[in-house]
């Protein structure tokens, strides 16, 4: 999606979001007895505010398209924007997968694996240093949070 | 006040607190250095580490992270032209140019010296101003609190750098997020969609971790990494002329920073921009700005440090955050079961004064650490980001879990991470959203109480002189600039206009 179209979609969505809050707010009661403020008052006002400002931004965008933010070029490691976007999309997929695996593998193992997968598969780091890094970080997290701070981190099939 | 300072010193100088202060400053500097982490993120993701210590110790450490990361952010501004913090953006203009001319050390040194001078001056002012303001605020009722919160929201929007409309939209979005959960007045559940987890609202520490840490990491993956300029020990030598040239800039920067930082809702970013703008205007060598002028580093660095300290005035005395980081610190206070506000000075003098005195100690540690060790810290910038960002993600998710021992928090962090990435991508400011989330609940409470107190007629706010004065100040902030422009245009004669 082009920068202009994406911005238009963004502000339209924000306007809809604000409108959604504003429309549903009266169901909670905007004003109570003796004109006192009810639970729907603030969502109504803030929702209308979000709608108003988003519509103004939308109009601004349609009237005089704001220059799209500068697109990043090739970075110092020679990666093109397309290559970086590919990594980013994979991170987007990997993150919810890691969180979903927490009940099964345990938090430390699931995120330790995430570090390993990102370092080796996405970032092309050598396997041994990446393995040391992920195992080390998992051990540190376990030590700090589970042992020292006594946080009951979710454990999985491996027992930690 | 002397007794209070003694009490604070006895707290802050205890070996445990000194150690945590040192740890905070050191961690803060490292956090500020790392791409994708700033003071808000640093404070948010490290809150879980402080859950087992005394609140005052925890706050001393978190405050250390706050000002430590500001200096860390300066190092990346100078060596990478990549600001670690929004408040360091303007430092890149001249700092990076100085680094390219082989004067990275001088830029870092003047930033450290300027920040230290600003911190000490603003702390003296903070210690002098905060207690009387807290005494005044003790007389505040719901209408006055409501007015202060309106002022905070208006300030946050009007003084935002960049588009005011975007800031206003994000402030509204933040307030809307705060509406999710059980309404404090009636006990009615709102916008929870049947979720038990959402009954207690959207916790803002998770929001902050998601927006600032995960969102920033995703953004960094998109924009790509840069290689830093090497800073050497011998470059650290700062000439006497540099200090002489920067003295005025440091003084003016401190004054601007403190003045803006006191306003509830005004962050340090604007202070740094204004200090830079003023310096360029008053400087005899304005043409040098943007090409490596040392004043262009000294002024914004002094301003953002002074503002950071002054931000604690509304935070501690009114319970209203001065900016995004103090909003997170406010969240930390509530995690420790402490109610911020004017009563804090009376009820917890050890905590307040211990914290204030720890600022002095922390800034001394920061200067001692940073003047000789800046090139050592700079080496951290050479760690490949491909190793770094998975670790930041790991820490963020585990930290978020540790706050509530709840996997729901981890999902929230993920969702707000994606939102944060989108906000970065489309240049939507994050600070108004975070402050909106923090203020939202307090704002509603003050609104409901005021309406009950005034028998449902909010127009009766006009009978409350303090509330009216504060609301008038908010109104002036909105219409003041346009009014001043119009007056300026009117005083300009037609001849002048047509020349």
TrEMBL record, chain A:
Family matches, as InterPro entries: DUF1468
The entry's keywords: Membrane, Transmembrane, Transmembrane helix
Transmembrane segments annotated in the record for this chain: 38-59, 87-118, 130-153
Protein name: Tripartite tricarboxylate transporter TctB family protein
Organism encoding this protein: Saccharopolyspora antimicrobica
Phylogenetic classification of the source organism: Bacteria, Bacillati, Actinomycetota, Actinomycetes, Pseudonocardiales
Domain DUF1468: 14-154
One Pfam family matching this protein: TctB
From TrEMBL, chain B:
Keyword entries, A-Z: Membrane, Transmembrane, Transmembrane helix
Coiled coil: none
DUF112 domain segment(s): 18-434
Keyword Transmembrane helix among UniProt keywords: yes
Top-level division of the source organism's lineage: Bacteria
InterPro entries membership: DUF112_TM
UniProt-recorded name of the protein: Tricarboxylic transport membrane protein
Membrane-spanning residues: 12-34, 46-67, 105-130, 142-160, 191-214, 318-339, 351-373, 385-403, 409-426, 433-454, 466-484
Record organism: Saccharopolyspora antimicrobica
């Amino acid at each position: 999606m082009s920068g202009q179209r994406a911005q238009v979609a963004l502000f339209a969505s924000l306007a809809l979001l604000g409108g959604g809050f504003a429309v549903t707010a009266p169901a909670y009661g905007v004003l109570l007895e003796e004109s006192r403020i009810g639970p729907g008052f603030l969502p109504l006002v803030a929702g209308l505010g979000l709608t108003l400002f988003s519509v103004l931004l939308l109009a601004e965008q349609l009237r005089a398209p704001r220059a799209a933010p500068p697109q990043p070029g090739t970075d110092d490691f020679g990666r093109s924007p397309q290559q970086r976007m590919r990594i980013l999309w994979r991170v987007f997929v990997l993150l919810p997968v890691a969180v979903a695996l927490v009940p099964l593998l345990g938090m430390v193992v699931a995120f330790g694996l995430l570090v390993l997968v990102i370092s080796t598969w996405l970032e092309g780091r050598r396997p041994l240093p990446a393995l040391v890094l992920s195992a080390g970080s998992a051990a540190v997290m376990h030590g700090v949070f589970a042992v020292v701070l006594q946080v009951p981190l979710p454990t999985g099939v491996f027992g930690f | 006040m002397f007794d209070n300072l003694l009490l604070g010193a006895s707290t802050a100088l205890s070996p445990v607190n000194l150690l945590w202060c040192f740890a905070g400053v050191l961690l803060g500097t490292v956090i500020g250095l790392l791409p994708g982490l700033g003071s808000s993120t640093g404070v948010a993701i490290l809150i879980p580490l402080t859950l087992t210590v005394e609140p005052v110790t925890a706050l001393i450490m978190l405050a250390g992270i706050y000002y430590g990361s500001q200096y860390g952010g300066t190092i990346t501004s100078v060596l990478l032209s990549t600001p670690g913090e929004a408040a360091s953006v303007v430092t890149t203009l001249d700092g990076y140019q100085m680094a390219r001319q082989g004067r990275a050390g001088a830029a870092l040194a003047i930033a450290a010296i300027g920040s230290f001078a600003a911190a000490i001056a603003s702390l003296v002012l903070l210690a002098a101003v905060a207690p009387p303001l807290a005494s005044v605020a003790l007389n505040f009722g719901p209408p006055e609190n409501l007015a202060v919160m309106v002022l905070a929201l208006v300030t946050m929007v009007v003084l935002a750098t960049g588009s005011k409309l975007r800031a206003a939209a994000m402030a509204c979005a933040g307030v809307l997020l705060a509406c999710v959960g059980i309404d404090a007045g009636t006990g009615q559940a709102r916008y929870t969609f049947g979720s038990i987890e959402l009954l207690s609202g959207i916790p803002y520490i998770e929001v902050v971790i998601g927006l600032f840490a995960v969102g920033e990491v995703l953004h960094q993956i998109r924009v790509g990494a840069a290689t830093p300029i090497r800073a050497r020990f011998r470059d650290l030598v700062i000439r006497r002329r540099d200090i002489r040239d920067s003295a005025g800039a440091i003084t003016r920067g401190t004054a601007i920073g403190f003045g803006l930082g006191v306003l509830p809702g005004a962050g340090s970013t604007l202070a740094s921009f204004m200090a830079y703008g003023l310096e360029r205007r008053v400087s005899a060598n304005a043409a040098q700005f943007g090409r490596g002028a040392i004043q262009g580093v000294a002024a914004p660095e002094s301003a953002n440090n002074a503002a950071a300290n002054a931000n604690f005035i509304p935070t501690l005395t009114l319970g209203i955050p001065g900016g995004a980081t103090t909003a997170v610190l406010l969240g930390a206070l509530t995690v420790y079961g402490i109610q911020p506000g004017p009563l804090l000075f009376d009820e917890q003098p050890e905590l307040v004064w211990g914290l204030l005195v720890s600022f002095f100690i922390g800034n001394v540690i920061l200067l001692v650490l940073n003047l000789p060790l800046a090139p050592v810290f700079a080496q951290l910038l050479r760690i490949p980001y491909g190793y770094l960002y998975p670790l930041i993600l790991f820490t963020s998710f585990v930290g978020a879990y540790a706050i509530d021992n709840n996997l729901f928090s981890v999902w929230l962090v993920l969702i707000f991470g994606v939102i944060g990435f989108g906000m970065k991508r489309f240049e939507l400011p994050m600070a108004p959203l975070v402050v909106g989330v923090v203020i939202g609940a307090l704002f509603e409470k003050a609104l409901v109480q005021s309406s009950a107190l005034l028998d449902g007629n909010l127009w009766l706010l006009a009978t409350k002189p303090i509330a009216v004065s504060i609301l008038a100040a908010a109104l002036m902030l909105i219409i003041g600039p346009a009014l001043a422009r119009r007056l300026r245009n009117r005083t300009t004669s037609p001849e002048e206009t047509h020349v």
